[in-house]
Amino acid sequence: MAGVVASVPGLAAAEPLRITGGLESRYSDNATLSSSNETSDIENRVNIGLAYQSDPGTCNASLASRFGYGIWMDDTYDNETYTNMDFLGDCEINDNLKWELTDHLRDVTEDSRAGDTPENRTRKNIFRTGPVLNFRLSQVDEMVLRAHYEQTDYSESTEPDSDRYVASAAWNHLIDPTLTAGLSASADRAELDTGEEIDRDTLSATFAKQWAATRVSGSLGMSQLESRLNNITRKSDGIVGDLELVRDINPTTRASLKASRELTDQTSDYDIRFGPFVFNLEQTAPVEVTAIRGSLDKQFSDGSTVGVTGYGARTDYILTDLTDYRAGVSSRYRRPVTQFVGFTAGLGYDFYDYGGEVDSNDHLVKATVGLDYQLSQKLTANGSIGHERRESETTTRDYDENWILLGLSYQFR
């Protein structure tokens, strides 16, 4: 029966624990991404990656992670720890009840208007756990009840942490074997360590439809957000929803589209769920976000692959009446040169419009090319060069950077 599932999303076929390690050296002629007085430096980094997928069963687990530690030769920055992890798990208590646990760990940008440097990053960890009750009302109807506790922690004390309690109920009706429709209601209560409290209530209609080569799902509804801080209460409401479409154009080509509009805050997992979207942590917590992302991926008979991704996002900071716009497109290409050598290339363009500023438009261009060489079944060497250029109507945000990266990676198991 189609509908909201109680198991962990994205679980696939079992995959044994994979451990990879790597060493990288990256030279930059403008490590601080400054408009003047550029500083060159080399960062040496050691990386380790862990990946695991359990067999489907009473308890399921999925792990994808990569951790690194970087040392700057000329001390442009302090030694830096890099983190990226997704853990999804659930255990079946009985036929109708499961317990879910997820943990997402990311290095995120603090000020979206500044360059992506170590001093402009913080670590964001989102831990979430709770029960999911799933039961059938009839042969074509099901009810899904969820209750979760969520904790968000930033490594920098200047960013707000939060405790969140979320309860939701969803009814799904199977119209035919390929079409499901239903209703969903949720209540979200967040308590930030700044003393701010943010309540959000949402009611939506949902649907999911599948054809032979196309899958589409989405929701449309209303949401109300109330923020309380220092005896001041502010309310905001609006239409919210999401849409996701995936189409297999042919066996070697896939297109996807994802769109979302949501009332939320910067301690939520929206930036993790929605790709290139970035919160500006320098602004106030409640936000109204509208975002869209599309991609096209193609594989050719010679083994080469090409992909194009475009996105756009609008962020309204409710308490300050500021609005940020972001849009961009990126492309990536990979081609096997020989049995052991591969060529890669990438090109990207981003446009930023920071509402509320007199000089607010920025343009960012990135270009990379690289080669990788498989030295043995488990050992691979790689090298790449890149250029990044940012032009801004605020001249202090201008910069040019050229960089070179050399690395080795080894798969231990």
What does this structure look like?
- The chain is mainly beta and 413 residues long.
- The protein is built from one helix and 20 strands.
- It has one helix spanning 270-273, and strands spanning 15-28, 41-53, 59-72, 80-92, 97-109, 121-136, 141-154, 162-176, 179-192, 197-210, 214-229, 232-250, 253-265, 286-299, 305-317, 322-336, 341-354, 361-374, 379-392, 399-411.
- Helix content is 1%, strand content 69%.
- The protein has a 20-stranded antiparallel β-barrel.
- It has one domain (19-411): Beta Barrel (Maltoporin, Chain A), CATH 2.40.170.
Which spans have pLDDT < 50 for at least 5 consecutive residues? Answer: 1-11
User: Which series of helices and strands comes N to C?
Assistant: EEEEEEEEEEEEEHEEEEEEE
**Strand tally, please?**
20
- Classification by helices and strands: mainly beta
CATH topology: the name is Maltoporin, Chain A
Helix content: under 10%
Query: With helices defined by DSSP (H or I, 4 residues minimum), what is the helix count?
Result: 1
Structural shape: globular
- What's the CATH architecture name? Beta Barrel
The rounded Rg comes to 23 Å
Query: What's the CATH class, please?
Result: Mainly Beta
The description of the largest β-sheet is: 20 strands, antiparallel, barrel
Q: Tell me the distance between the termini.
A: 38 Å
- Give the integer mean of the pLDDT values: 91
Which percent range describes the beta-strand content? Answer: over 45%
Whole-number count of domains: 1
